[in-house]
Amino acid sequence: MDPFKQMSDWKKNMDHFFGENFWKDFEGMIKPNIPQINMYQTENEILCIVNVPGLKDLNQMDIYVNYATLELKGSIDLENAHGTVVKEEILQGVFDRKITLPFPVRADKISATYKNGLVFIQLHRFIDESSRRNKVEIQPLEDA
Questions:
Q1: Which of 51, 63, 80, 92 has a 20 to 30 A CA-CA distance from 33?
Q2: Number of continuous H segments (helices) and E segments (strands) in the chain
Q3: How far is CA 90 from CA 8, 33, 54, 118, 121, in A?
Q4: Residues 19, 11: Cα–Cα separation, whole Å
Q5: Dist. CA 122–CA 130, nearest whole Å
Q6: In 3-state terms, what secondary structure has residue 73?
């Protein structure tokens, strides 16, 4: 009997018992997210450092920002990988990752740079114009 068929049957039974989304809660533990990301926050800025080794063409990666969500799409492909894998700690493959940001960011003030396998994404806090305290200038009223 095929052990992979047994495993597939077992997973279907678990999906039926716990619900189809049961495995999504364990996905990060079983398969780590790629690309890896470090995020740093100051009062008005966020710096995201994304690990994308081997990126030869910057158009191979897409970065989207929507209010308080950062989305990264692309793939990590280490072309130098030949032979039988003995140890593999550098994760590779296609990625589509959405990261919740600690606060909403401005769409007009985003920058991304790439150096030595790292993408640096700089984001700036969105401050709603309607909630700002606006100073009102007093104009002289002329006598009629």
A1: 80
A2: 2, 7
A3: 27, 12, 11, 14, 21
A4: 11
A5: 24
A6: strand
Residue 142 falls inside a structural domain: no
Where on the phi/psi map is residue 44: left (φ > 0), alpha (ψ -120 to 50), or beta? alpha
Say whether both 60 and 101 belong to one domain: yes
**Distance (Å) of CA 38 to CA 22, 41, 50:** 27, 10, 7
3-state SS, residue 143: coil
144 lies in a domain?
A: no
CB-based contact 90:117 (threshold 8 Å): no
Domain span at residue 16 reads 1-31
Whether residue 105 sits in one domain with residue 47: yes
Phi, psi of 112 (to 5 degrees): -140, 130
> What global pTM score does this model have?
0.68
